[in-house]
Amino acid sequence: MHAPNDGLHLIGILDDGWDGLGRAARERLAASDVVIGAGRTLRLVAPLLAQGAVVRGMDGALGKVPDWARAAWADGLRVAVLATGDPLCHGIGSFLIDRLGAERVTIHPAPSTLQIAFARLKKPWQDVAIASCHSADAGEWHPGATPGHGLYKLVRAIAEHSRVAAFTAPDNGPDRIARALLAAGFGSETRISVAARLCLPDEAVWSDLPLAEAAELRFPAPNVAVIERETGFLPGFPVFGFDDDVYVQRQPEKGLITKLEARALSLAKLALHPDSVVWDIGAGSGSVGLEASRIARRGHVWAIEKNAADAENARENARRFRATNYTLEEGRAPAGLDQWPDPDAVFIGGSGGELAELIALSLARLTPGGRLVMNFVTLENLATATAALAAHGAQWEVTMLSAARSQPILDMHRLAAQNPVWIVCANRPTRPEPVSDHD
């Protein structure tokens, strides 16, 4: 039998310790038989705990906390867990509720450190996006970083939102965040503010630092950061429909780029979602993959290009467009594609002579409902593609796009035809259900 209300009490605490706790939180903590928390929070309250209270440090042992709580309940003991600030704001509240059940967890929140930081900065915060880089040290940010990087979610949040509040970590501090944003193409339109050692005697605040300045500073821990930039997803560029000459591309002749008309139709055929994983095979200057990265803004684009000069152009375009959810590999497909996650959409703009193999691989790896889209300007490649699709049982359709653009002639204008493009769209084949011997 358990005593009434003997569940776990999750108590938010800041660095002002006992003095900052409310009456109910103090009473519960003082009466607890088992107190669990990180070392730094336990030290804040240790002298005021009940005599004989068992103290358990959860640094590196968060997964054990539910079992510790259940064991204490079995012995009729009262349990309190300490968490920083508001346990339901990027804290451990959701984890414990999920493991123990909402009816067994009572939460006593303190103000979030973000709330305190905005108060110190005298900035409103009702419109901010909240992100965290509390993760393992993944090193400095680099162009083309993949979703596994410790700063990835934060950098993507900053790309999408003009105001972001960030919980930092010792390995991912404000200086590293500033360097990441500089590497990702952000500049003078972006500022970073830092609030460090909140509620301690040596509390310090830096407001609206330029990224270059913040990148060279070392901020005392713990701290939180606020990143603000001028509004607009990407000033000067639309979300979709870039003009061809916006892209850095091969010189002196242009042409290794999917032109706007074919690009727009190809992207429509890919049927992207905000969280789509996209493959761009034969990326050229990167035009299709980079616009796909803006549509699939919560997803990721994996691109490959065999020509070194074109690959460099694509990297430069990614930097200029701040495509922080875009990874380009230099190489000849299909080499390396086995390391990529399964795609929701595949675009093949160039095949390097491996078209049939690439079609087979793409169809095999596409997620259910996924699309394969290809562009061709030669009859031979079109024939190879349709034959390969038929051989794999894929449903497909071909659209021939024949576009013309106006050009001045004397004081008038004429239409100049572009090369026709065949746009092939295929769905992932439906796998037949296995036949049971008992049918």
Question: Could you describe the 3D structure shown?
Answer:
- This protein has 439 residues and is α/β, with parallel strands linked by helices.
- It has 3 domains: 8-111, Tetrapyrrole methylase, N-terminal domain (Cobalt-precorrin-4 Transmethylase, domain 1, 3-Layer(aba) Sandwich); 115-229, Methyltransferase, Cobalt-precorrin-4 Transmethylase, Domain 2 (2-Layer Sandwich); 244-427, Rossmann fold (3-Layer(aba) Sandwich).
- The chain is 28% helix and 24% strand.
- It is built from 13 helices and 19 strands.
- The chain has helices at 23-31, 39-45, 65-74, 93-100, 113-121, 152-160, 174-183, 211-216, 260-270, 287-295, 308-320, 355-365, 379-391, and strands at 8-13, 34-37, 54-57, 79-84, 105-108, 129-132, 163-167, 190-196, 204-210, 223-229, 277-281, 300-305, 326-330, 345-348, 371-376, 396-401, 404-409, 412-417, 421-427.
- It has a 7-stranded mixed sheet, sandwiched between helices. A 5-stranded parallel sheet has the order 3-2-4-1-5, sandwiched between helices. Strands 6-7-10-8-9 form a 5-stranded mixed sheet, with helices on both faces.
- Strand 8 (190-196) and strand 9 form a beta hairpin.
- 39% of the residues are buried.
- The model is unreliable at 1-5 and 432-436 (pLDDT under 50).
